[in-house]
């Protein structure tokens, strides 16, 4: 009846809006970045940082936490792991919305093109977050929200096209395949 067609038009209009991702760009200046070597996942003192140190640093950068370790800061006294280097300009792009796997593959391919001339970046990252309260997570299991609803993976891609894949899930979720 009329109620059904009204409902259909409501959903079709609103679903189109919901499926259109929101994209924001920002430039981070004079950013302290960990020094990474693709072959050293554990890192080496005074040579490179570990995957765990990178993951923690990335969380701070994405949440716009200051990296200068000021004792007066009530939010964080976090500082960039050693060794690190200051990058004059880093580019941050955030895409929010319902994103299908094919689009993520396309994004990865586009990012790898960035290693063409001029070769300015040594490495770059792509982080994919599931919604904290998503009903499903990895495999076919329900997603346990509990405390934080962790549900993400992160690619670190190097200039030589080696890559790291980092995954994080909540304590009650299945591990990724």
Could you explain how this protein is built, in words?
- With 177 residues, this protein is α+β, with helices and mostly antiparallel strands.
- The protein has two domains: 22-96, no CATH class; 99-176, no CATH class.
- It has three helices and five strands.
- Strands 3-4-5 form a three-stranded antiparallel beta sheet, with helices on one face.
- β4 and β5 form a beta hairpin.
Feature tags:
177 residues, alpha+beta, two-stranded antiparallel ribbon, 5 strands, 24% helix, 27% strand
Short description:
This protein is an alpha+beta fold. The protein contains 3 helices and 5 strands, in the order H-E-H-E-H-E-E-E.
Tell me the number of strands: 5
Poorly predicted runs: none
Number of helices: 3
Series of secondary-structure elements, N-terminal to C-terminal:
HEHEHEEE
The whole-angstrom Rg is 19 Å
Largest sheet: 3 strands, antiparallel
Residue-averaged pLDDT, rounded? 79
Number of domains: 2
Strand content: 25-35%
> Span between N and C termini?
46 Å
| Secondary structure category | alpha+beta
User: Residue share in helices?
Assistant: 10-25%
Strand order of the largest sheet: 3-4-5
Shape: globular
Sequence-ordered SSE layout with sheet pairings:
Blueprint: H1 2-19, E1 22-34, H2 51-62, E2 84-96, H3 101-113, E3 123-129, E4 151-158, E5 163-169
Antiparallel strand pairs: 1-2, 3-4, 4-5
């Amino acid at each position: 009846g009329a109620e059904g067609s009204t409902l259909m038009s409501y959903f079709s209009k609103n679903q189109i809006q919901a499926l259109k991702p929101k994209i924001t760009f920002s430039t981070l200046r004079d950013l302290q970045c960990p020094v990474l070597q693709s072959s050293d996942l554990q890192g080496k003192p005074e040579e490179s940082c570990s995957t765990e140190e990178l993951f923690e640093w990335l969380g701070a950068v994405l949440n716009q936490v200051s990296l200068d370790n000021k004792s007066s800061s009530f939010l964080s006294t976090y500082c960039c792991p050693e060794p690190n280097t200051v990058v004059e300009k880093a580019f941050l792009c955030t895409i929010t919305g319902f994103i299908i796997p094919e689009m993520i593959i396309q994004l990865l391919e586009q990012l790898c093109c960035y290693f063409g001339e001029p070769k300015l970046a040594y490495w770059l990252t792509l982080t994919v977050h599931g919604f904290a309260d998503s009903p499903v997570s990895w495999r076919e299991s329900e997603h346990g929200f509990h405390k934080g609803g962790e549900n993400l993976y992160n690619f670190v891609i190097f200039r030589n096209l080696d890559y790291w894949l980092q995954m994080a899930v909540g304590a009650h979720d299945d591990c990724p395949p």
